[in-house]
Amino acid sequence: MSSLTAGYARTSLFGNDAEQQRAELLALAVAPDRVYLDAGLVGMTRPRPALGEALAAVRCGDTLVVTALFRLARSTPDAVNLLGKLIAAEVALAVGDVRQPLKGRRCSFSPHLLNRRRRSGR
After folding, report:
1. pLDDT at 38 over 80
2. Using 50, 70 and 90 to split pLDDT, how confident is the model at 31?
3. CB-hemisphere CA count at 13 Å for 12?
4. At 112, is the secondary structure helix, strand, or coil?
5. At residue 64, what are phi and psi to the nearest 5 degrees?
6. Of 14, 73, 102, 103, which shows the fewest CB atoms inside 10 Å?
7. How many CB atoms lie within 10 A of CB 107?
8. Cα separations (Å) of 62 from 30, 58, 101, 104?
């Protein structure tokens, strides 16, 4: 059985461009029918149905692709929990274009930076 790639994108109500994230996932070799999108979701405890679908769609040896870590996880504990699930299922995680150097970029879950990212559409 060959491995598959699934992509997950999440946008809030602050003007984030779902189509831009979708285009980035397609450019990262995710098939159009394997892109899962939670659009317009705000709140730390609000359910993310598309994330549940994406996690259910990947199996051992598959890869889950996100454009940025903060699109997958809402906080550091959330990231640890989700990464634990992926590791247990033996699913790889690809964050953005791994062929491009990070050039000093970093992901932070501080509320100030998250709000600024939401408003900028990143």
Report:
1. yes
2. very high
3. 19
4. helix
5. -100, 125
6. 103
7. 17
8. 12, 6, 23, 28
What's the token pair of residue 11?
A: 């946008």
pLDDT of 16 reads 59
- Which amino acid does the sequence have at 19? E
Q: Please, is 58 exposed, middle or buried when counting C-beta atoms within 10 Å of its C-beta (0-12, 13-18, 19+)?
A: buried
**pLDDT at position 81 over 50:** yes
Distance between CA 29 and CA 80 in Å, rounded? 26
Q: Is the pTM for the entire model greater than 0.85? A: no
| CATH number 3.40.50.1390 is the correct assignment for the domain at 5-117 | yes
Task: Give the span between the Cα atoms of 85 and 88, in whole angstroms.
Answer: 5
86 closest CA partner among 72, 96, 75, 76 = 72
1, 2, 29, 33, 89 from 72: Cα distances, Å: 27, 24, 18, 19, 17
Element (H, E) at 19: helix 18-27
Across all residues in the chain, what is the average pLDDT?
79
